[in-house]
Amino acid sequence: MPDQLVVEVKGAVAGYGEEAVLKGIDCTVRSGEVVALMGGSGSGKTTLLRLLTGQLPLREGEVTVFGERIAGAKRETIQRLRRRLGMLFQQGALFTDLTVFENVAWPLREHTRLPERIVRDLVWLKLEAVGLRGAASLYPAELSGGMARRVALARAIALDPELLLFDEPFAGLDPISLATVGLLIRRLNDALGAASVVVTHDVQESLAIVDYVYVILAGRIVAAGRPEEIRASDDPFVRQFVRGEVDGPAPFHYPAPPLTRTLLEERA
Amino acid sequence: MNRGEALLLEVGAFSRRLVTRVGRASLFLGAVLRRSQMPFARPRLLLREIYTAGVLTLSIVVVSGGFVGLVLGLQGYDTLQRFGSETALGSVVALSLLRELGPVIAALLFASRAGSAMTAEIGLMKATEQLDAMEVMAVDPIARVIAPKFWGGVLVMPLLAAVFSAVGVLGGWFIGVVVIGVDEGTFWSQMQGAVSWEEDVAGGVIKSAVFGVVVTWIALYQGWSCRPTAEGVSQAITRTVVLGALAVLAADFVLTAFMFIGV
Ligand SMILES: Nc1ncnc2c1ncn2[C@@H]1O[C@H](COP(=O)(O)OP(=O)(O)OP(=O)(O)O)[C@@H](O)[C@H]1O
Ligand SMILES: [Mg+2]
Q1: In sequence order, what E strands does chain A have?
Q2: 3-state secondary structure at position A131
Q3: CB A35 within 8 A of CB A212
Q4: Whole-prediction pTM
Q5: Tens digit of pLDDT for each residue in B53-71?
Q6: What mean pLDDT, rounded, does chain A reach?
Q7: What ranges do the domains of chain B cover?
Q8: A-B contacts (CB, under 8 Å)
Q9: CB contact under 8 A, A107 and B137
Q10: Does A93 touch chain B (CB under 8 A)?
Q11: Which residues, at least 6 apart from B122, have a Cβ–Cβ distance to it below 8 Å?
């Protein structure tokens, strides 16, 4: 069903220590859509993903995935939701003691009772989709960063998820691998009819492939819109972010007292 | 604040940290025990862990068992012949191995070889987000990874202790009978007469099973709770070896005391 609400986040507040990292987030993702979540380091992007996978408790607000509330949900509910989503971790998070083939087969073996022959067929299809059929017998340590990312992608789509979460899929890739991974995300999302959330710093690449963009700063959504709206935005922070300028509203410094005070205190 | 108060504060803070850690580790053990169905429902997972832990430790257990047996033969003979009772050599060697040296030394070797490997593996899986990935793939890492390793360690420990004692007895026999020339028949019959199943053999098995629980628990908890960085993992490995050895020796004293009282 197209245009169905897959993720809905309303006024979400969450964090690790005393101070909340997410300070009231609103966003939605519909099926068929690829949504980018952009923002500087430490702004809370990974934290938001952890909220969607039920790995982090919600303090205030509401998070619904596939129409079910995550906060306070029973363990079985969360496990059921997790089976319908695939996540790509920043470093791939491949199982280092298994080959590429076995990594992709892993979710199938854990969650289905399919006969071995069918498992193998499915794995070959997923590896073909990311262009790495030839690397099936390699171990993760023998892969380049971009290849590892693609294997992890194949593993994430092994069970044909309806929601795909990508944590910085472009980080540390050369321009060609970067474009390859970007294209794959778009194609796989469309082929599966899934919804995707792409966390990224890479403004130009993601603006090229996504349908909608949320810009997050210090735990709040500060801008949202279609890629062309974001490009044309005259919001000072969004302009600074899209053009990658040092000077602007986004602070270069981690919060600290004035330098003079620090220096004086050193003397005292 | 005077020195006494400062010291008291230190002791207080230390005790609080200690109690917190022991509490967390106990909760972890509780979770492992509650989610232990998988290794038994899927025996291949369990067998793999038994095999890995066993193979890692077997060769050093055999070599050390041999040397300890040789030394026991020499020392035992030297002491016994002062009282003219060198015929008792067989029983001395067997009893020391079965009751003490087999379980304790095998556990120390297990902690430093298989235990440290477990900590390293879990710690690396944590640092590289493999455990997180499992969780997001709707597979409980405690049930899937930790529980099989735990039961593998617990089951393999008595086997290793038995191998250690068996090889040690052969070492003692080699020195006593082959090298020194104690009568072979006396050596074995003394041993057979002195060793009782219920007390000595069963006692040793109970000890080594307890050591298996303690060492595997420490190793897995250190890996599970380490800081997810290269430095954090290496510190956790060191702690597994040190804490594992201390815990084995302390547990040995407690168990021996109970066994002597006869509880
Ligand atoms: N496990 C944790 N425990 C405590 N604090 C954390 C933890 N993970 C993240 N934080 C803090 O939460 C804040 C947001 O972190 P988060 O990982 O969500 O940022 P991010 O937007 O993903 O950044 P990056 O782009 O660098 O990955 C940071 O200030 C970080 O220090
Ligand atoms: Mg992040």
Answers
A1: 5-14, 22-30, 34-38, 60-65, 68-69, 85-88, 163-167, 195-200, 212-217, 220-225
A2: coil
A3: yes
A4: 0.86
A5: 999 899 999 999 999 999 9
A6: 87
A7: 43-261
A8: 41
A9: yes
A10: yes
A11: B131, B145, B146, B149, B220, B223, B224, B226
- Regarding the beta carbon of A21 and ligand 1, being less than 6 Å apart is answered yes
The one-letter code for the residue type at B34 is R
Please, which pLDDT band fits residue A142 given cuts at 50, 70 and 90? Answer: very high
Which residues are bridge partners to A35 per DSSP?
Answer: A197, A212
Closest to A74 (Cα-Cα) out of A54, A58, A51, A60: A54
What is the rounded CA–CA span in Å between residue A188 and residue A126? 10
Contact across the interface for A89 and B129, Cβ inside 8 Å: yes
Residues within 8 A of B (CB atoms), A 51-80 only: 53, 55, 79-80
Report how far ligand 1's centroid is from the alpha carbon of B48 (Å): 36
Give the span between the Cα atoms of A104 and A130, in whole angstroms: 11
Question: What ipTM describes this predicted complex?
Answer: 0.82
From residue B55, how far is each of B21, B66, B245 by CA, in Å? 31, 17, 20
* Atom number in ligand 1 closest to CA A17: 4
Residues B257, B263: Cα–Cα separation, whole Å? 9
CB atoms within 10 A of CB A249: 13
Per the CB < 8 A criterion, the answer to whether A145 and A117 are in contact is: no
Q: Tell me: the pLDDT tens digits for B159-183?
A: 999 999 999 999 999 999 999 988 9
- Residue whose entry in the numeric block shows the structure tokens 């998820």: A161
Q: Return the structure tokens found at B28.
A: 């972890």
Give all strands (DSSP E) within A34-180, no chain letters: 34-38, 60-65, 68-69, 85-88, 163-167
Helical axes B202-225 vs B147-173, angle rounded to 10°:
140
d(CA B224, CA B122): 6
> What pLDDT score does B143 carry?
93
Distance (Å, rounded) from C-alpha A171 to C-alpha A98? Answer: 24
CB B219 within 8 A of CB B115: yes
pLDDT tops 90 at residue B109:
yes
The answer to whether A145 contacts chain B (CB < 8 Å) is: no
Percent of chain B at pLDDT > 70 equals 99
Helix (H) or strand (E) holding B166: helix B147-173
